Amino acid sequence: MVIWLCMFASSLMVYFIFTLWVRGRRKIEWKGTWDRLFGLVYGLYVLVSLHLVAIWAVMNNLGPATCLAIMLEMTRLLMKSHAFVRSNSPKFLENKQGAFPSVSHYLYFLFAPTLIYSDSYPRTNRIRWGRVVTSFAEVIAIVFMWSVIVENTYVDYLKDYGKTNYTFLEIITFIVECNFAGFIMFILLFYLCHSYFNGTAELTRFSDRLFYLDWWTAENWDEFLRKWSYFVHEWLHIYIYRDLHGVLFPGRTLLAKVLVLLLSGYFHDLILCVASRAFLPLTTIEFLCFVWIRKLVSNKFMLGLLGMEMSCTITLFMMEYYARINCPMQTASIIGYVMPRFLYC
Fold first, then answer.
1. What is the DSSP letter of 297?
2. DSSP conformation class of 155
3. Is there a catalytic annotation at residue 268?
4. Is residue 300 scored above 80 in pLDDT?
5. Same domain assignment for residues 105 and 196
6. Same-domain check for residues 211 and 309
7. Both 83 and 177 in a single domain?
8. Phi (first) and psi of residue 66, to 5 degrees
9. Domain boundary at 46, 80, 111, which?
């Protein structure tokens, strides 16, 4: 609870620093220096905050589930803060007249199930408490089902990794055999997101419920990424891709897409690596591989790939997690922390 309050306070601090920047810009003459100073402070906040939380989680030896929740929450707050700053700063840079966003609206934005900032949002007339209870009960049930599958499939088979020798063929066979379990876990993950976002939307009276599109009909990787998590894709497109494609690398579409995938992969891997105490940039590697097969047309291939990818990712992280428990380092070194231990344990 204390760490969440600190993370929330840091996000709230962004609002007040932004307010200070806007008010100072209206009074001082050296606006360029003032803008660069604000940009420097904001950039340091973005770079430092998430990594400080990661270091704190590791130093306090928090469990994988707790680390996962903390890192996801800090990432969410960072994305919200950036959306607020990126949406409002152009208005004041161009000296446009308009009301400054109220702190109450900013607070609502922090809790609403959206990553796209707007001066107003569609709202429902009332909270349907029955749907709220049902949605969050589904979330609890899905988490329980996930834990049962992981415990009885992956943990049960890999908990002795590092003590018992596993051949390469045995690991590959296990990944393939768990393909269906991986697909079920992927569906449960989707259902968890569906229930959580709809429950939060009902609780905040947020009426825009377009959280995903029909990803199950996707015939290539590009289409799947756009549809699987629609509002995350919109955030990346509006606040990252447009700046890369229109300002930093004008006209270089493929480069902008690759950089967006690298950024997305980095955040995915940072969250997973902190939770598992392993340095395995699997998501980044997967995203880069999918750049080359992004136009491969086959809906059945896409659906089969989802289960295989989930099974492979969980297996590798479990192998590394138990390798680090069962084969501790004799002497601390940077290479020892970075090198995947399942390769030689």
1. -
2. I
3. yes
4. no
5. no
6. yes
7. no
8. -65, -45
9. 111
Q: Which residues pair with 161 in a beta bridge?
A: 164
Partners of 164 in the β-ladder: 161
Decide if 198 contacts 79 (C-beta within 8 A).
no
Strands, DSSP E only, in 81-239? Answer: none
Q: Is 153 in the same domain as 87?
A: no
> Token pair for residue 182?
């991986």
Domain holding 70, by residue range, is 1-111
Structure token pair of residue 70: 């903390």
Q: How far apart are CA 241 and CA 233, in angstroms?
A: 10
Residue 118 reports pLDDT greater than 80: yes
Say which residue the tokens 């009885």 belong to: 152
Q: How far is the C-alpha of 114 from the C-alpha of 207, rounded, in Å? A: 11
Nearest one of 101, 187, 206, 117 to 146, comparing CA atoms? 187
Q: pLDDT tens digits, residue range 18-30? A: 988 888 877 777 8
Q: Are 228 and 212 in contact (CB under 8 A)?
A: yes
Q: Per the domain annotation, does 264 fall within a domain?
A: yes
Domain membership flag for residue 241: yes
Displacement of CA 9 from its chain's centroid (Å): 20
Vertex 309 angle, CA 303 and 314, to 5°: 135
Count of domains in the chain?
2
pLDDT per residue over 273-295, tens digit each? 888 888 888 888 887 777 666 66
Would 120 be classed as within a structural domain? no
Please give the Cα distance from 1 to 84 (Å, whole number): 25
- Choosing from 105, 233, 245, 268, the catalytic residue is 268
Q: What is the DSSP letter of 101?
A: P
Question: Can you tell me the mean pLDDT for 115-140?
Answer: 93
For the residues 153-174, what does the mean pLDDT come to? 88
The reply to whether 116 falls in a domain is: no
Name, in order, each residue with C-beta under 8 angstroms of 134's C-beta and a sequence gap of 6 or more. 199
Reply yes or no on whether the pLDDT at 206 is more than 70.
Answer: yes
Is the CA virtual torsion 71, 73, 79, 81 positive or negative?
negative
Cα separation of 28 and 250, whole Å? 33
Strands (E), 101-212: none
Give CA separation, 35 vs 30, 85, 107, 247, 264, in Å: 9, 13, 25, 18, 27
